Amino acid sequence: MKTQVAIIGAGPSGLLLGQLLQRQGIDNIIVERRSGDYVLSRIRAGVLEQGMVDLLREAGVDQRMDEEGLPHDGFELVFDNRRVRVPLDKLTGGSKVMVYGQTEVTRDLMAAREAVGATTLYEADNVQPHSLESEHPYLTFEHNGETIRLDCDYIAGCDGYHGVSRQSIPQDRLKEFEKVYPFGWLGMLSDTPPVSDELIYASHERGFSLCSMRSATRSRYYLQVPLDEKVEDWSDERFWDELKRRLPDDVADKLVTGPSIEKSIAPLRSFVVEPMQHGRLFLVGDAAHIVPPTGAKGLNLAASDVNTLYRLMVKVYQEGRTDLIERYSATCLKRIWKAERFSWWMTSMLHNFSEEEDFNSRMQLAELDYVTSSQAGLTTIAENYVGLPYEPLE
User: Fold this and answer.
1) pLDDT of 253-276, one tens digit each?
2) Strand partners, 146
3) Residue 348 belongs to what H/E stretch?
4) Which residues of 24-52 are buried (b: 16+ CB within 10 A; e: fewer)?
5) How far apart are alpha carbons 30 and 1 in whole angstroms?
6) Sign of dihedral through CA atoms 21, 388, 288, 173?
7) Where are the alpha helices (H) located in 6-148, listed in sequence order?
8) Which one, of 187, 190, 191, 195, lies nearest residue 250 by Cα?
9) Contact, 141 vs 31, CB < 8 A?
10) Which residues are catalytic?
11) How far apart are CA 346 and CA 135, in angstroms?
12) What residues does the FAD-binding domain cover (predicted)?
């Protein structure tokens, strides 16, 4: 088999890259080790930055998002018995975010790819990149009992933190940066109306909580929990009771409870690897970086990598600008580190790091009080939340 761009991973970043390239006449094949149903079963984020919304429109997969997605022009910060709204649109010149689940983004991209007959090979085992520093890289993998070689010009590693792409780069070529947080998020999905029309980020002496949603009838709630907590120890009743304790009374009184659809605990960490390319292999999304979910940046950062690689490939194939290839990593990392900073800052400001009141808890309160009482502080939050501009290649 042969293609121009081989994409490892059929998650939203791989599918979005493939869709954008396809619309520019750049041939690509996606190789995914899981089944399509498995990919769609992943429960993930659902707050899309303005830049990602615009990119999905450019990819031609915006119809259902515009019909079913929930545009949000603000969110609330709750702390010290105060509720402060951050008006995103007013502070950023009109930018907003869109609440639209990652599963739905993936579903739309799958449908668009199928409609144009582009190739996605699911359940491909033992995927291995080869000859990355040559002009003729290729993949080998097993599919339907056959060993297949896929020759290509470039390889996009969109296969996540545990994927083969980053592992294919010699370890002495990479530098890793990591911070592990001493707690996790217990998330619960339920078919209940959201407690608020906008997201609520709440800092409380019992721990952080987040009230989010996937639609007007489906809610997603999170609680900060110790890393040694087990999901099976959290009944629905216990979850709802604890969430109510961490919310203001007027919010808790409006909370509609119901059976959970899914519960899971996710550890929190920050991770970046440099560089994000090796020869003709480019790392995209979680293969190169992880952020704590507090800033709603994970999927959005993957989209900004896709934006950079897509525009780079267009320059390569339509203008012969191979000189830009070496700029991919530095271009992506410039924006990544800013998003890492925002996610780290929000996490550090809103979570409990000790059961006792201490210097850090007082600093958190002072920080929250300052940024929410300052126009400059609120603008900083809003600009980062809706997403900083995508970095130009040149």
Assistant:
1) 999 999 999 999 999 999 999 999
2) 143
3) helix 328-350
4) eebbbbbbbbbebeebeeebebbbbbbbb
5) 12
6) positive
7) 12-23, 36-41, 50-58, 63-68, 88-92, 102-115
8) 195
9) yes
10) 72, 201, 293, 297, 385
11) 43
12) 2-343
- Domain assignments of the chain as residue spans, ordered by start: 5-70+99-177+268-352
Evaluate whether 240 touches 251 at the Cβ level (below 8 Å).
Answer: no
Q: Which residues contact 350 (CB under 8 A, 6 or more apart)?
A: 79, 201, 202, 203, 208, 294, 364, 368
pLDDT above 70 coverage of the chain, percent: 100
Per-residue pLDDT at 361: 93
Name the CATH topology of 5-70+99-177+268-352. FAD/NAD(P)-binding domain (3.50.50)
Which residue, chain included where needed, has tokens 């689940």? 101
Tokens describing residue 4 = 């121009």
CA–CA distance, 275 with 125 (Å, rounded to integer): 27
Residue whose token pair is 């699911």: 122
**Helices (DSSP H) in 34-186: which residue ranges?**
36-41, 50-58, 63-68, 88-92, 102-115, 164-167
Using pLDDT thresholds of 50, 70 and 90, give the confidence band for residue 95: very high
100 SS3 class: coil
pLDDT band at 63 (very low <50, low <70, confident <90, very high): very high
pLDDT, tens only, 282-327: 999 999 999 999 999 999 999 999 999 999 999 999 999 999 999 9
Coil, strand or helix at 391: coil
Please tell me the distance from the alpha carbon of residue 270 to that of residue 111, in angstroms, as a whole number. 33
- The yes-or-no verdict on residue 51 having pLDDT over 80 is yes
- Cis status, amide bond into 275, omega within 30 of 0: yes
